[in-house]
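---------- Forwarded message ----------

FYI, see the Serine incorporator 5 record below. Original note from H. follows.
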Amino acid sequence: MSAPCCAGQLACCCGTGACSLCCKCCPKIKQSTSTRFMYALFFILVTLICCVMMSETVAKEMKEHISFYETICQHIQAGNSCEKLVGYSAVYRVCFGMACFFFIFFLLTIKINSSKSCRAYIHNGFWLIKLLVLAAMCSGAFFIPDQDTFLNAWRYVGAAGGFLFILIQLILLVEFAHKWNKNWTSGTKHNKLWYGSLALVTLVLYSVAVGALIVMAVFYTRVNGCDFNKILLGVNGGLCLLISMVAISPCVQNHHPHSGLLQSSVISCYVMYLTFSALSSKPPETILDENQNNITICVPEFNHGLQTDENLVTGLGTALLFCCILYSCLTSTTRASSDALRGIYATPETEVARCCFCCSPDEETDVEEHVGKRGGQRVVYDEKKGTVYSYAYFHFVFFLASLYVMMTVTHWFHYESAAIEKFFAGTWSIFWIKMASCWVCVLLYLWTLLAPLCCPAREFLV
């Protein structure tokens, strides 16, 4: 490792320098991207620790293969078998430390508009110090007195934060659907091929939604029984039809000319996904057959074959879920997303149609005021003229994501029997949370369609 590279990494860990790799062949990285990547690494690290704490297999293997395991547990006063470091209570404490870490940075970075301020330097640097602070806060949570009161109170705070995180993602999903339609519709003024693109994507999405409904009707219902599943599929299928009819109704079109079937198809696909996820999370139903044996009904028959390697299924599924959570955090912390939550949108006149419409022209352009060269990966300081995303909103979303991870890993309100190996076991709390998310998403989309009719005096730019 070269001396300039070592100096750069030292500035990254203990100073205000942006973090980068020591390999010159790596493509250049923006300072704003580097910063968000480092916070994401912190989030992933703590999330992995929570998963390990909830794993019965890991605790058992460590106890069997580490001869001095009990000695270490007694030395650190974690119980004879480190019972204080495993289970839902340990996850609550670790996530409390991570949530406090991001909440403090949320307060610290409120109303930062320049990357040259003292608070901005703290946000963009001192990574080793911040890692030590995060570790200290997660460890310090184990010394909170009156643990029972703390855990009970923190559970409700976690539930509220988890619900708010879900709500923000649903709002941004609806905003995403409207933004997609508005961007591609703006291109039809200059090129009629955009009409074909709109029609093709809409047809594909509706085909996926209808196909998913049919597949769920085949595998999650039967001729006799499964009435609850039939009702849910009927209700959610009817809601998809309802929002599609409302979106193209003349009264909505008069007040909301950008409304169309593309948005409805996006919402319909998401509703079908949540319906499938909810049915998969529902506790299995059992009945007695003619031989008086318990049999499971209303679930796919091939589901039994998937249990041959539960650890593999759980590991892959958990990794995929938390990748989605991390992706949601990073995509919902852009300037456009924070503006959308405050009701600030681009005007139709400034819209430029593009296939990759998620990135605004400002976000795609590299402002190479200065390029750092430290013998390794080049760093583009793209915030010389101002911040490219809201620092405070970024930390607030990660604060809510910390609470959402805590509740998800501990099975929400079925925490006492929770384990990472039972992550995909059906529970009613997870089922109803997913179904409620589905219906809230529909209500939010309907509100964006009907709000101009209900409040004609106000201007809605969605």
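H. also flagged this: The mean pLDDT is 76.
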